[in-house]
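TICKET: design request
STATUS: open
ATTACHED STRUCTURE:
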């Protein structure tokens, strides 16, 4: 079992593998966009901690006040993603990453750690059943099936911003809010743009490129959110024609 973990820093962020499942010998637009996004976030207390291998073993979290999500609360950390995949599953790496995040929160004097969950586990969200083993409970919920999970140290709880609770927008066409924190996003945005152009489907692709925009979002968000006919549909990345066609028929 490998035991060497490393946190990304301004000094090593250009050299370290970013741990997602993208494999490319050439510069990848999504990976490079993520790298640039990280460079700006590290100075805000953002943490990207990974096993020092070219594999998917990492956790990513930030102070809630600077986390790009429509969640508010005093003195929390927000856990964007904890992901262990492939040959590294079942070896205790997920537990080590979660324990580090919780210990870091305590060392910083934080009130706890929170993360996005749902009534039922969703793709592209960290395993909420795993989180509940560490004492995470439902702190808040939306009207459309998403939950805010929190591990509180002092009894306080964070909450969704009021703008995010109902999951509705006035725009009736396919609408996607996105940022580039996930390296899969740029390719998915390009795919949706092409899909909609080919079929004459109106679409609004809205880049969430500031903290202020992220905090005011009209729905649950980790780095992606989809609306259609004014209703929130999913935080899952879209990249399958059949999936999107089914959504457009509803």
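STATUS: resolved
RESOLUTION: sequence designed for all positions
ATTACHED SEQUENCE:
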């Amino acid at each position: 079992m490998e035991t060497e973990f490393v946190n990304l820093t301004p000094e090593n962020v250009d050299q370290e593998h970013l741990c997602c499942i993208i494999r490319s010998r050439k510069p990848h637009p999504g990976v490079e966009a993520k790298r640039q996004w990280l460079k700006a976030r590290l100075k805000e207390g953002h943490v990207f901690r990974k096993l020092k291998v070219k594999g998917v073993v990492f956790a990513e979290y930030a102070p809630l006040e600077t986390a790009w999500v429509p969640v508010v609360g005093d003195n929390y950390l927000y856990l964007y993603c904890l992901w262990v995949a492939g040959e590294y599953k079942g070896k205790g790496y997920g537990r080590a990453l979660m324990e580090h995040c919780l210990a870091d929160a305590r060392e910083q004097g934080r009130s706890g750690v929170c993360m996005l969950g749902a009534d039922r586990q969703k793709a592209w969200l960290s395993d909420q059943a795993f989180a509940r083993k560490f004492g995470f409970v439902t702190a808040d919920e939306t009207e459309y099936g998403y939950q805010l999970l929190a591990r509180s140290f002092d009894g306080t709880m964070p909450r969704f911003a009021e703008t995010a609770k109902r999951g509705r927008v006035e725009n009736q066409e396919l609408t996607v809010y996105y940022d580039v924190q996930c390296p899969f996003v740029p390719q998915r945005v390009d795919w949706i743009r092409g899909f909609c152009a080919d079929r004459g489907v109106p679409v609004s692709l809205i880049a969430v490129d500031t903290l202020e925009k992220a905090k005011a979002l009209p729905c649950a968000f980790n780095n992606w959110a989809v609306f259609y006919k004014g209703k929130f549909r999913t935080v899952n990345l879209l990249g399958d024609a059949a999936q999107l066609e089914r959504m457009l028929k509803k």
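CLOSING REMARK: The chain has two domains: 5-163, 164-249. Residues 5-163 form a domain with the Aminopeptidase fold (CATH 3.40.630.30).
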